[in-house]
Amino acid sequence: MDYKDAFKDKTILITGGTGSFGNAVVKRLLEYGAKKIIVFSRDEKKQFDMGNEYGNDKIRFVIGDVRDKDTIFHAMNGVNYVFHAAALKQVPNCEFFPWEAIKTNVLGAHNVIDAAILRDVERVVVLSTDKAVYPINVMGMTKALMERTMIAISREKRGKTMLCGTRYGNVMCTRASVIPYFINLMKLAKPLTVTDKNMTRFMMSLSQSIDLVLYALTNGKDGELYVKKSSASTVGDLAEVLAEIFNYDKGIKEIGVRPGEKMHETLISAEEAPRTEDCGDYYKINPEVPMMDYRDYYFKSREGGSKLPTEGYTSVNTERLSKEKLKELLLSLDEIKEELKNFRK
């Protein structure tokens, strides 16, 4: 889909803009003719490196924290669109410091949304995760609350700002995700450690995650959540295929499921399935609406709505990638191609 008309001459702010998503979406937005791209984050070193890499006057870097409402309000001046990607995402860190996750993932999101409304921003997309569905860890719980915050404020209809969101599965080759972790273990000549070989995860490329967010921004309405239709793989197959690709022979070691981990992930819950619509490459989860006759709503949904399984959309009931298909997918990623060039030079 061509998004040039949507972003030409627009000013876009990206919170957490020095992360994997921010770096990748900046490239797209420059291609689409954005007027200005504001990269808002806490890490001055990453901003310095990113500025040197791009050397583009259309990119403006702002040091700040979404926890500080004044800072994000100041940065939002003149902005048309916002991608809210700033978050604490590491499951163990959120487990040990839950109050920090609450301050960033929930209160920070509220600050971003409130500032956008006060600044008359046109559209905001918040980025969530499959861990927000039936959450069992702090990261998922705070992301679920972020979603509910977005939906609740969207019901208030304050100002002109449209608020919607996306949910991701596993985005391959992003920082701190499992694929770079496996590759780093190979560089250290250590066995690949997996918690449980039968654990399943959705597989999505970084490019697909950007497509999802752009689709949500250009098509979304208040309170909606968008999900990319994604294949899944077992963690064991992923480790084995990576070892095959890199011709690595140090073995794979199971270490057991860690606290806060699920065997399988869910992108759409069973409760959300009846109000989910098929949009081709994506699913749209419509928000629950107060004062609606729920019996009528659920009846209509079953007649003409989603064809999702009654248990929702999970990494078990989606398409399971064979090892051959998984290998083909991994070899198509630029990050894997680059790692293969430099591996054991």
Automatic annotation (TrEMBL):
Q: Does the keyword Aminoacyl-tRNA synthetase apply?
A: no
Note the InterPro entries from the entry.
CapD_C (IPR013692), NAD(P)-bd_dom_sf (IPR036291), Polysac_CapD-like (IPR003869), Polysaccharide_Synthase-Rel (IPR051203)
Q: Which UniProt keywords apply?
A: Isomerase, Lipopolysaccharide biosynthesis
SUPFAM superfamilies, A to Z: NAD(P)-binding Rossmann-fold domains
Q: Which residues form the signal peptide?
A: none
Please report the organism this UniProt entry assigns to the protein.
Candidatus Wolfebacteria bacterium CG03_land_8_20_14_0_80_40_12
**Pfam families the record matches:** Polysacc_syn_2C, Polysacc_synt_2
Recorded catalytic activity of this chain's protein: UDP-alpha-D-glucose = UDP-alpha-D-galactose
The answer to whether keyword Disulfide bond applies is no
Query: Recorded GO terms, molecular function?
Result: UDP-glucose 4-epimerase activity
Q: Which GO terms describe its biological process?
A: lipopolysaccharide biosynthetic process
Q: Which family is this protein grouped under?
A: Belongs to the polysaccharide synthase family.
CDD domains per record: UDP_invert_4-6DH_SDR_e
Q: Where is the UDP-glucose 4-epimerase CapD C-terminal domain?
A: 294-337
Q: What domain of life does the native source organism fall in?
A: Bacteria
* Name of the protein in question: UDP-glucose 4-epimerase
Residue ranges of coiled coil: none
